[in-house]
Design brief:
The protein is of the alpha/beta class. It has eight helices and 13 strands.
């Protein structure tokens, strides 16, 4: 007997990816329901290579009898509908930012803190972390287990798909406009994104950081270790899919390149591609459509004691969102719900 699964926000970038990954990984679902706003009702979406699901209206849907919901409709919508689904007995895996830092909602990356999933019983909700946080903590976890991390300084190179379909369209349209000498008008972004980079993701906070920077710091502490200090600079770059991160780590104990490589070689979800030669590293375009977090450019930092730097990339729509949510659902189904 399989599970009844709902995908909330099914027409968005992440929602469509959730449907695809559920099918790819052969999740034990007897029924998969696609939910979105009223304007999308009746729209047909692919579920795997050979199945179609029709979108139903989230506003009128009754969650009674649904076992698991994968939710990515935006924070405001999730704030309303995730508790409603949970109240009907459905376990919600929420991809939005709304519930992440609530103390009674577990924030989970299965390769890092799978045991936290047990906390779903308090509210019926499990939070999926921010995309940039997910790939970083997957790479940091095996190093932290080995030598304990004191401080992380990270600069992100985040693709436009993290801001949604309209942002992807804006990059495409601006690029085309520049080539044909049409005017370029920013709409989704604060400045031109084509042939540019923008050091501004989410809203500014009182201390000069942006909300995206804050998320990386507080989420890393909640998932991995509250004693880790994180200083981030988050930058939007003109790439459609997949985020890159330049990560500098200071450890409490010695950490060599050899030890780091050995730790990563046994770590779930991490693939090291690091050759000191042309093409000996992974870029966002190669990570797109892949499940792993790729680590490259590993080197000692001689400017601090016990310092190490590396580059990591991952598909932000897959591991940074949809895949992580499905992996949580897999653990939930195998270890907790057990039909």
């Amino acid at each position: 007997m399989g599970y009844k699964v709902a995908v909330i926000g099914a027409t968005g970038n992440v929602g469509r990816e959730m449907l695809q990954i559920l099918a790819e990984r052969d999740f034990p679902a007897d029924e998969v329901i696609a939910l979105a706003s009223e304007r999308s009702v009746g729209r047909e979406l692919s579920y795997g290579d050979d199945k179609i699901v029709k979108v139903r209206d989230l506003a009128t849907f009754d969650f009674k009898g649904v076992d698991i919901a994968l939710s990515s409709p935006g924070a405001k919508v999730s704030a309303q509908y995730s508790p409603r689904a949970a109240a009907a007995g459905c376990v919600v895996i929420d991809n939005t930012s709304h519930f992440r830092m609530e103390p009674d909602v577990p924030l989970v990356v299965p390769e890092v803190n799978p045991k936290a999933i047990a906390g779903y019983k308090k509210r019926g909700i499990i939070a999926n972390p921010n995309c940039s946080t997910i790939q970083m903590v997957v790479a940091l976890k095996p190093l932290h287990d080995l030598a304990r991390i004191k401080r992380v300084v990270v600069s992100t190179y985040q693709s436009v798909s993290g801001a949604g379909k309209d942002a992807m369209d804006e990059l495409f349209n601006q690029t085309r406009a520049i080539y044909v000498n049409d005017p370029v008008k920013p709409e989704c972004f604060t400045k031109q994104i084509a042939f540019n980079v923008i050091p501004h993701i989410d809203v500014f906070m009182d201390d000069g950081a942006t909300k995206e920077v804050w998320k990386m710091a507080v989420e890393t502490c909640k998932i991995l270790d509250p004693d880790i200090a994180v200083h981030a600079t988050c930058v939007r770059v003109p790439v459609f899919v997949s985020h890159g991160e330049a990560v500098n780590v200071e450890f409490e104990n010695p950490m060599s390149e050899v030890a780091a490589r050995a730790a990563w070689s046994h770590a779930p979800g991490v693939i090291v591609v690091d050759h000191r030669a042309n093409e000996g590293y992974v870029t966002p375009i190669e990570a797109t459509g892949e499940d792993a977090v790729y680590v490259s450019r590993i080197r000692k930092d001689p400017t601090i004691k016990n310092g190490l730097s590396f580059w990591c990339v991952a598909d932000n729509l897959r591991k940074g969102a949809a895949l992580n949510a499905v992996q949580i659902a897999e653990v939930l189904a195998s270890d907790y719900l057990k039909k």
